[in-house]
Amino acid sequence: MYRWLDHTSERELWIEDEDPEAILGEAAIALGELLREHPGGEPVTHPVSLSASDLPTLLVEWLEELVYLAENDGFVPERVLKMDLSGSAVEAVVAGKRTMPQTLVKGVTYHRLEFEQGEGGAWHARVILDV
Q1: What is the pLDDT of residues 56-95, one digit of tens each?
Q2: In the list 8, 17, 38, 52, which could disulfide-bond 57, CB 3.0-4.6 Å?
Q3: The domain that contains 84 carries what CATH number?
Q4: How far from each other are the two terminal CA atoms of the chain, in whole angstroms?
Q5: Where do the H-state alpha helices sit in the chain?
């Protein structure tokens, strides 16, 4: 489950789910929702291979890669077809549409960044995008 919170020229994304893979998957879907203007477009997939020093940084890198694909290929993510997460490295295939994104993201910030497991076992993440 994810939800967007509004800030001045920023959008805060809060995600809660069962495991880190699901958090990354929800982040891709949420970003697609933010970028999508029209339901149409050519179906495409993109492989994504990233590693980082920790899970919070991986979340930032993940979203930055998807933002890069949106800006340079008109790619709007819709779902993750395959994901292998090992520590703070991920290999994935993301499906979506090639179209004109509605919103362009200026950057993914580290301000208030979170990605951790809570006391009850569920995972949560928070990341702020500069739009």
Answers
A1: 999 999 999 999 999 999 999 999 999 999 999 999 999 9
A2: 52
A3: 3.55.10.10
A4: 22
A5: 20-35, 55-73
Q: Is the dihedral of CA 47, 49, 82, 63 positive or negative?
A: negative
Domains held by the chain: number? 1
Distance between CA atoms of residues 69 and 107, nearest Å = 13
**pLDDT attached to residue 10:** 83
pLDDT digits 0-9 by tens, 6-34: 666 788 999 999 999 999 999 999 999 99
Torsions phi, psi of 40, nearest 5?
-80, -175
Cβ–Cβ < 8 Å for 86, 109? no
- Burial classification of residue 10, based on how many CB atoms lie within 10 Å of its CB (0-12 exposed, 13-18 middle, 19 or more buried): middle
Summarised one tens digit per residue, pLDDT across range 95-110 is: 999 998 887 899 999 9
What is the residue range of 80's domain?
2-130
pTM: 0.91
Question: How far, CA to CA in Å, does 30 sit from each of 5, 86, 121?
Answer: 12, 23, 22
